[in-house]
Amino acid sequence: MTFKGCLFDLDGVIVDTASHHFVAWRTLADELGVAFDESDNEKLKGVSRVDSLEFILQKGNLVLDSNTKLRLMEKKNAHYLGLAAQIQPSDALPGIVALIDELKVLGVKIGLGSSSKNAEQILSKLGLLDAFDTIVDGNHLTLSKPDPEVFLMGANALGLLPEECLVLEDASAGVQAAISGGFSVLGIGRKEELGQADAVVSGLGDLNWSEIQNLLTHK
Ligand code: BG6
Ligand code: MG
Fold first, then answer.
1. Alpha helices in 111-186 (DSSP H)
2. Helix axis angle, 18-32 relative to 66-84, nearest 10°?
3. Are residues 185 and 106 in the same domain?
4. What range does the domain containing 63 cover?
5. Which end of the chain has fewer CB atoms at under 10 Å, N or C?
């Protein structure tokens, strides 16, 4: 299979911010007296800030007014940004920078498709802000993954059709978003969570673009 574009998720694909999001949500859930473990967190990967808060509130049978919800989201985000403050270029996950460089040489278009409103800030810390042909993030979206909006906007901005793009995702919600948008998707993580993807790897490691595309062909 040959793709003309590649859409990257950010958190958990380009950099391990997934663990920072988890710590920040768990701290907030603790303060609210809501049990929150790794399996809850798995469901929130790729899900927007507001939908993540709603998940926690629903789990705890809590009903809060909108000002309180805003305050809680600001608090979670401040905690998250504090944890993410030290991110530097060497924190890009293995294989990411090499893949981006290779795609540029090959003329394959690259886009970011993230639910995060902090995406540009995080990419800037990684020195990757200028690497993408298009960036679609939580500031542009009306619907959170698993809705395909993020990837459809990304493909459209690259001037490509969904079937011409490969999505790289670490989250079940993101894999579902890609599938329902008509994209091929490589899951990066565990088969248990990402089994619906066309192929799953534990990490990109030193896989090059041709090897990645072969994984999809031989699914
Ligand atoms: C996704 C993360 O990329 O972005 C989620 O997987 C996170 O964990 C979501 O909640 C929203 O991020 P932010 O940075 O806008 O709070
Ligand atoms: Mg992710």
1. 119-126, 149-158, 172-181
2. 140
3. yes
4. 18-84
5. C
Say if ligand 1 is within 6 A of residue 109 CB: no
**Sign, Cα dihedral of 163, 97, 175, 137:** negative
DSSP string, 54-117: HHHHHHTT----HHHHHHHHHHHHHHHHHHHTT--GGGBPTTHHHHHHHHHHHT-EEEEE-S-T
**CB 49 near ligand 1, within 6 Å:** yes
Cα separation, 115 vs 80, in Å, equals 15
In sequence order, which ranges of 11-65 are alpha helices (DSSP H)?
A: 18-32, 38-44, 49-59
117 shares its domain with 206:
yes
Q: Are residues 79 and 206 in contact, defined by beta-carbon separation less than 8 angstroms?
A: no
Q: Closest ligand 1 atom to the C-alpha of 11? A: 3
**Which among 49, 74, 175 is the best mutation to test ligand 1's pocket, defined by most ligand atoms within 8 Å of the CB?**
49
Q: Report, as ranges of residue numbers, the positions in the chain whose pLDDT lies below 50.
A: none
What's the residue count for the chain? Answer: 219
Residue 77 shares a structural domain with residue 154: no
Query: Which residues does 138 contact at the CB level (< 8 Å), separation at least 6?
Result: 48, 49, 114, 115, 116, 117, 118, 119
Going by alpha carbons, the residue nearest to atom 16 of ligand 1 is 49
CATH number of the domain that residue 42 is part of? 1.10.150.240
